[in-house]
Specification:
The chain contains eleven helices and no strands. By secondary structure, the protein is mainly α. Helix 2 runs antiparallel to helix 7, helix 6 runs parallel beside helix 8 and helix 6 packs across helix 10. It is globular. The two termini are 19 Å apart. The relative contact order is 0.20.
Length: 270
Amino acid sequence: LGVIEGITEYLPVSSTGHLVVAQRLMGIGIGADKEAADAFAISIQGGAILAVLGLYFRRILRIVMGLFGKDPEGLRLAIALVVAFLPAVVVALLVGDQIKEKLFNMPSVIAAWIVGGIAILVVCAWRKRQPAKGGGKELMELTWKMALVIGLLQCVAMWPGTSRSLMTIVGGMLVGLSLKSAVEFSFLLGVMTLGAATAKDTLDYGPLMLETFGPLNLTVGFLASFVFAALAVKWLVNYLQKHGMEGFGWYRIAIGLVVLGMLGAGWVHP
């Protein structure tokens, strides 16, 4: 599960969707341990967060310096991140528990995979038809209004299978960021959003997860998530620069149909 989380967390394919399928195939989270399994799927994001903190240390240092009044551009980026983060906080406080209760299931994940895949293909086709504008704006040109749009789109990703990375990268592209800048902002925003979700579930369900899975399994999942997230992030940046996002759109549609077939055949539990 840690390997799957690390590889998929920052790719626009939905780590939660992949984890739900993996858990079902392994017989985890079907019976009495469902609550602990759902929390575990969120808490091992901590390893992926730590990977981004290491890879983007210089950028994060500029943000910290900006908060202390020593880097105006860093402060501007910090404000943009907070603005983009707040909508998810509001939605999580209002309906977070209901989302986890109602939507952490295979039909919801399959629907989100397929719809998200189609959305990627539509956005990529739209971008190709737009006049060339020098590749889009750089990260430090991001305004708070642009960040708010990205933050509102991030809320859609609370539907398991949608992908937080998908919504924030596409959101960045829609407001005019270059693909590279949209990806980087998605990574940085993920540190805040995933960090808050991880902290909440760890505090709420930490004892239950320890009792259900034991400290060794939690540690292994965390470390695997860290290692493979670092590898995936470095790969993703290079891949998107060369190939764009269309491949992920087709992948999402394909995996959605495959898992739909598995569900129909009774190979995975709903």
